[in-house]
Amino acid sequence: MMKRALIPALLAPAILGSLVQAQAGRDYISMVGSSTVYPFATTVAEQFGKAGKFKTPKVESTGTGGGFKLFCSGVGAQFPDISNASRAIKSSERDQCAKAGVKDIAEVKIGYDGIAVANSKKGPLFKLTRKELYLALAKQVPDPTNTQNLIANPYKTWKEINKALPADKIEVLGPPPTSGTRDAFVELVLQDGCNSFSWIKSLKDVDEGRYNKVCNTIREDGAYIDAGENDNLIVQKLDSNAKALGIFGYSFLEENQSHIQGSFIDGVAPTFENIASMKYPVSRPLYFYVKTAHVGVIPGIQEYVNEFTSDRAMGGEGYLANKGLVPQPAAEIAKVRKAVANLKK
After folding, report:
1. Per-residue pLDDT tens for 211-256?
2. Rounded to whole angstroms, how far apart are CA atoms 322 and 185?
3. What's the chain's Rg over C-alpha atoms?
4. 3-state secondary structure at position 298
5. pLDDT at 203 (0 to 100)
6. Do 101 and 134 share a structural domain?
7. Partner of 120 for a Cys bridge, out of 140, 242, 249, 266, CB 3.0 to 4.6 A?
8. 272 and 204, same structural domain?
9. What's 248's domain CATH number?
10. Which residues pair with 116 in a beta bridge?
11. Residue 160 is part of which domain span?
12. Strands 82-85 and 283-291, how do they pair?
């Protein structure tokens, strides 16, 4: 009994010391995480800073996975306050947070996004299925001569997969393993394409490890090119290489429609309306996560969250919609706003 009673008393000074250090060591909000959420977070940060009450937050594009690793490393000025994410936090990441003393985290859903598969307008408009994308990008695929066997991906050109597609070499620029966009692409595209083969789909119940290896592993022979966390760089490379495709969030397609075009996926174009209705098959929610132990210690966190969740920011006519964020319905926004009204609680 004595030992159990002493644990909170021993922990409290350590946590208090970290918070005092945070207050003394930093007077601006620090954010890390998703490259997809980055343009939205920086836009809100700029608006927030212009108001003049608090310093403009610092936003870094580290990828969703990389952001959670930094965010979950501890409490104090040396650790970020907010982690932007293009997917929900994983249970393993919550465990990592808890082990480092980050136990109270607020999830804020900010809207929706679509993952675009795009190319230069100098090239042909692609109309692809998720099955074709799986066959183009998976490390292992069914043998064309015996679809009950798996082989190393043999496809070199798009035409080899579907005669209606160009004879161009398969060359796809995409995000790295630390990216939430890549995680979502694997889940929403590769897995779905993989499941189109019924015998592979049935593996999930028999040998989940093998299923994940077959359905979730991207090829490493040069057809898929890890282009890093800078989605703007992918867009630039597409502009100079008309035969390549790129994978990134819809907002980057929206901002660069004068020279790149989004591929149809399963017959649906990546448009604002199709993503908002979830008709586009590669649509997903976006989030950011707040370390509530820093609220009231690092100046401006509650106020920043209030600005981000305001109608003027993420409402249907808000300034983030102009940046390509697909807003949530008004009722969902109201629930989000109510949930984060007092982060200290």
Report:
1. 999 999 999 999 999 998 888 889 899 988 999 999 999 989 999 9
2. 24
3. 22
4. strand
5. 87
6. no
7. 242
8. yes
9. 3.40.190.10
10. 248
11. 114-283
12. antiparallel
Closest to 114 measured CA to CA, from 192, 60, 184: 184
Three-state secondary-structure class, residue 316: coil
Residues contacting 306, CB < 8 A, separation 6+ = 340
Side chain identity at 193, as an amino acid letter? G
Tell me, yes or no, whether 3 lies in a domain. Answer: no
8 A C-beta contact, residue 87 and residue 37: no
* 264's tokens: 């149809």
Is residue 132 within 8 A of residue 161, CB to CB? The reply is yes
Residues 120 and 104 in one domain: no
pLDDT digits (tens, 9 = 90+) for 107-139: 999 999 999 999 999 999 999 999 999 999 999
Residue 202, domain member (yes or no): yes
The answer, as to whether pTM is greater than 0.85, is: no
Q: Quick check: is 1 in a domain?
A: no
Tell me: do 251 and 129 sit in the same domain. yes
Q: For residue 287, how many C-alpha atoms fall within 13 Å in the half-sphere facing its CB?
A: 22
Cα 338 to Cα 330: distance, rounded to the nearest angstrom: 12
Q: Do 129 and 276 belong to one domain?
A: yes
In this structure, the answer to whether residues 124 and 260 fall within a common structural domain is yes
Strand, helix or coil at 153? coil
Tell whether 7 is covered by a domain.
no
